[in-house]
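User: Thanks for the earlier help. One more: 4-amino-4-deoxychorismate lyase. Can you show the sequence and predicted structure together?

Assistant: Of course, both are below.
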Amino acid sequence: MFWYNGDLIKTNIIELAIDDPGLLYGATVFTTLRVYCQSLDRPLTNWKGHGDRLRSSIQFLNWQEPDWQKVRQGAEILLQDFPVLRITIFSDGREWITGRSLPTDLTEKQRHGVAASLVSGEEFHRFLPTHKTGNYLGAWLARTKAQHMTASEAIFVDPNDNWLETSTGNLWGWQDGSWWTPPLETGILPGIMRSQLIDWLKNQNQPVMEKPWTPEIIKTMEAIAYSNSIVQLIPIHTVFEERGVRSVDAIAASQRVERGQEKMNQLNYNPYHPAFEQLRKLFAD
């Protein structure tokens, strides 16, 4: 079941006109939130933050705002059955809310980390990267390619070999006693969880370095991870790079590994680094 345009629909089929811009061009904006304790008002759910993200994008695109009361109504109904809600707004103000379960392997990934692979931002990129639009093909293709390389996530790399973000979240790294995350000025998504982590760390008087992830910085990271509102924080233990993407080639610490006939560079990080425990305290809601 799902919520659409003011009604609860108890099927898995949505009806859209064949000339709907949302269908033809992905002309929608969306946000995906994790509901804690079945309440939109829990601090970690951050209903306001997700609403502000939608409002900001709608105003930027000069679209019609939805009936926010109906958006909340639909979310309140669906959270009774689903811990994850995806709220989509069409250009004419229609709301569409779907629910799903948490990933079944989430706890394992949080504990032991995942592998990621680098992808060129020139090959794959998100349209209007500072907004979550329905045109998410670039990120989906990047992650699909990463999964074909036995990785779980893709990391976008810009033309200067700087790491930007993953296909589903923001990057975090630990070095020199501080957390590092790429700055918004690099053209990344201002993630809701990213903002929550930065605010929480600053309230704890912990420094957060928002600086570009250059090849020089990457090779000094002790541990890295990615965050989003659903998975919270997942360590990355291995980063692969196909030949043709340059950034890991520039790193003296890179190693060579061979997978059948395909050679790739590889970087390894500690998924059990004690610094992760500091960030995990935020999620003790």
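User: Great, one quick takeaway?

Assistant: The domain at 106-283 is CATH 3.20.10.10 (D-amino Acid Aminotransferase; Chain A, domain 2).
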